[in-house]
Write a structure and sequence with these properties.
By secondary structure, the chain is mainly α. The protein is built from ten helices and no strands.
Length: 190
């Protein structure tokens, strides 16, 4: 356990010097520009709380990771999360030097491929996937918005996500409408 004086000294010497970089990092990845100071303060609070157990070897990496986690937590609490924000949060560690440019390029290519696949889905299937996975609506809310039954939403979501996964793994984005058998049904058929 780190005492308060050592914690304050660590914070002043190791953390405060890169506050400007941290503010820029948060501003680039925050949905609301007005929240930058709040996110910084929450990051500092979490960093200090965590550092009480033991001072980290790299203050910069530790605080940027804490700030990244604060941003992710806020995004998860938000009702609507855009694909662009997910991509930004996925590549957020690039700023502290932990991810290579190759990894960042791969992540952006995967996002482009996912967006292209989503656009190629049949209209109803695409809209169900968008409402459920991008806008975060419940099955009931999606059904009400589209004027369809709950079973239809569940089935379209399953078909769409299976097709997208297949597409992301190099497939053709084919909608497979054949009924999926449970493992025990497959064994019984043999």
């Amino acid at each position: 356990m780190v005492d308060d004086n050592a914690l304050r000294a660590w914070f002043a010497k190791e953390v405060l010097p890169f506050e400007r970089d941290l503010m820029g990092f948060i501003a680039r990845h925050s949905r609301e520009r007005d929240d930058v100071i709040d996110i910084r303060q929450e990051s500092y609070e979490r960093a200090l709380t965590g550092a009480r157990a033991g001072l980290p070897a790299s203050a910069r990496r530790y605080v940027f990771t804490v700030a990244r986690n604060v941003l992710i937590d806020r995004a998860r609490r938000a009702r609507v999360v855009s694909f662009e924000q997910i991509a930004d949060l996925d590549s957020i560690l690039v700023d502290d030097g932990t991810r290579s440019p190759d990894h960042q390029a791969e992540a952006r290519d995967e996002l482009r491929r996912a967006l292209a696949g989503l656009e190629q889905l049949p209209p109803r299937c695409r809209e169900v996937v968008r409402l459920r996975r991008v806008e975060g609506l419940s099955i009931r809310e999606t059904a009400e918005r589209l004027g369809v039954g709950l079973h239809t939403v569940e089935r379209q979501l399953t078909l769409g996500l299976r097709a997208l996964v297949d597409y992301m793994h190099g497939g053709e984005l084919r909608i497979d409408r054949s009924p999926q058998r449970k493992p025990h049904e497959q064994r019984a058929k043999r």
